[in-house]
Amino acid sequence: MPFIPHTQDDVRRMLEVIGVGQIEDLFDEIPDDLRCGELEHVPEGLSEMEVAALMQARAREDGQPLCFIGAGAYDHHIPAAVWQIATRGEYYSAYTPYQAEASQGTLQLLYEYQSMMTALMAMDVSNASLYDGASGLAEAVLMAVRANRKSKSRRILVPRTLNPAYRKTVRTIVGNQNIELVEVAFDPVTGRTDREALQAHAGKDFAAIVIPQPNFFGVLEDADALTDFAHANGMLAIAVVNPLVMAVLQPPGEWGTDGGGADIACGEGQPLGAPLASGGPYFGFMCARQSLVRQMPGRIIGKTVDLEGKTGYALTLQAREQHIRRSKATSNICTNQGLLVTAATIHMALLGGEGLARVAASCHRNTAALLQQLTGIDGVERLFDGPVFHEGVLRLAAPVAEILRSLAAHNVLGGYDLGDDYPELGNALLVCATELRTEGEMSEYAGKLARIMAARTQAKCPVEPKFS
Amino acid sequence: MSNDVPSELKYTKSHEWVRVEGDGIAAVGITDHAQELLGDLVFVELPEVGVELGAGAECAVVESVKAASDVYCPVSGEVVEVNEALAEAPETINQDAYEEGWIFRLRLTVPGELDALMDADSYAEHSESDEH
């Protein structure tokens, strides 16, 4: 579907028809004190050549370091075909088209995406995506508060093992809607959500509990027990999962000892074909059980037949949405991350279930090997004993920020410093090795870390210098 | 066009009807006129049994192929029963708005509020004028 902007002449003629002098007059009814006025600090436009030069300079700053950071975004192989196909003119748009008759290709793709996500998550329904994992979770929290009519509270249990960026984002989005996020501590030995801390909330009124799998430390939570806890206490279970990992682990739709499953599953779609790209754009996904579909935000594409009985695709259940329901819509989100979802759909189609499982298994194997190598270094030890998927936490005998700086100087991104988010953990470093990391690269990392640690902990020279 | 407006019921301007059933219980639904304006219903969101509603409170949503519309509680009361059959067959309201298409039953807490509602004649006039 081509995007053709209005010409100045189009605009002038449209304004003439409706009897308005200039576009600005259309915004008259908005009180002046709510208008931001002229935007300051917006630089002058640049030519294409200047933009290209600027972007190349910035790309050089990034360099091509060896990446051992996960922490929510992961360095995976993306088959060349993914973006070759995704950037075809027919697909190259971020928007869901309203006009079904002009957009069957895009709509079918979104329908296939939804089908793949429900299969991966073992859930009944999927929307056509949200902005990213963190905002997707905020939407899931709002959805749970609407949907859990047994609960009178607007309180949500949020484990501290959830990605800190997600906790902040959710707080920002739902904080002004009288929704309270109550944090649950983790067990310092296992790195999992603490059973006793959780039990302290049993029998109290919460709308939902968030269940991260794997959690931010890479540790596998006891998803069955957490789901059981939710349902035994009248809470909805909101799964926050890494979609790639769900190719090998039990998916949210099967959690709980009765296999009844989580009620909502959401997360970050980046591992499915989106490059790291300095933090985005990525996409969020959301799935739910059928009975909650009318409380789910976002676009949903349905499959139907036309008057001649031919298959067609169309937006469905739109009464949930802003353009129909106005202020009572399930969300102010009426769009999705169409382009990233296009890439993800092609990525999943190319890899298939088996391919995704092999990538996930390979990440697990590499991370296990990396952790083993790194913990062989003096002053480096594992922090938690809970089983991990493709990330793990190390404790260093030196300040993490300094070690990471030294590694960066050797062109290695050594991991994510947990110090700011979890000061109680001391010098804690979160590391990850995806399927892309070779044995050679992991040895290179281990070698450099060993030298840096040794240099720091070496006994001081007994002969003090005579001048300073 | 004229719609069925049973004389024994009470009505609101927002097109709900109330049937007083004795023992302080009243059934509530939307009028034939309302269902016709909405068109084919595809979903009804029912209130929770046990919830206390004030007069004028939003208590249900009726969704059709062309619109979604709130249902307002005509008089104060506690919801004692909801029409679960509507979950599977929302079109019941299109077919029989006043009998099989009831939405919920209330135990009235301020029965005097019934006097403020419209009778069938007033409602028929109101809904006629609504069409212009």
Low-confidence stretches of chain A: none
- Helix tally of chain B equals 4
Largest sheet of chain A: 7 strands, mixed
CATH topology of the largest domain in chain A: Aspartate Aminotransferase, domain 2
- For the CA atoms, what is the radius of gyration of chain A? 25 Å
Q: Portion of residues in helices of chain B?
A: 10-25%
What overall form of chain A do the CA principal axes indicate? globular
Proportion of strand residues of chain A? 5-15%
How would you describe this protein?
The complex is a heterodimer of chains A (468) and B (132). With 468 residues, chain A is of the alpha/beta class. Helices cover 35% and strands 14% of the residues of chain A. The N and C termini of chain A lie far apart (71 Å). In chain B, a hairpin with a 4-residue loop joins β1 and β2. The mean pLDDT of chain B is 92. In chain B, the strands form two sheets. In chain B, strands 1-2-3-9-8-5 form a six-stranded antiparallel sheet. Chain B has a domain at 25-113: Beta Barrel (OB fold (Dihydrolipoamide Acetyltransferase, E2P)). By secondary structure, chain B is an alpha+beta fold. The chains are: A alpha/beta (468), B alpha+beta (132). Chains A and B meet through loops of A and loops of B.
Q: What would the keywords be for this entry?
A:
A: 468 residues; alpha/beta; Aspartate Aminotransferase, domain 1; 2 domains; seven-stranded mixed β-sheet; four-stranded antiparallel β-sheet; 35% helix; B: 132 residues; six-stranded antiparallel β-sheet; three-stranded antiparallel β-sheet
Question: How would the blueprint of this fold be written?
Answer:
The complex is a heterodimer of chains A (468) and B (132).
Chain A: H1 8-18, H2 48-62, E1 66-67, H3 80-86, H4 104-121, E2 125-126, H5 133-147, E3 155-159, H6 164-174, E4 180-184, H7 195-199, E5 208-213, H8 223-232, E6 236-241, E7 264-268, E8 284-288, E9 301-305, E10 311-315, H9 322-325, H10 338-374, E11 380-382, E12 391-396, H11 400-409, E13 412-413, E14 416-417, E15 428-432, H12 439-457
Chain B: E1 10-11, E2 16-22, E3 25-30, H1 32-38, E4 41-45, E5 52-53, E6 58-64, E7 68-72, E8 77-82, H2 85-88, H3 92-95, E9 104-108, H4 120-130
Antiparallel strand pairs in B: 1-2, 2-3, 3-9, 4-6, 5-8, 6-7, 8-9
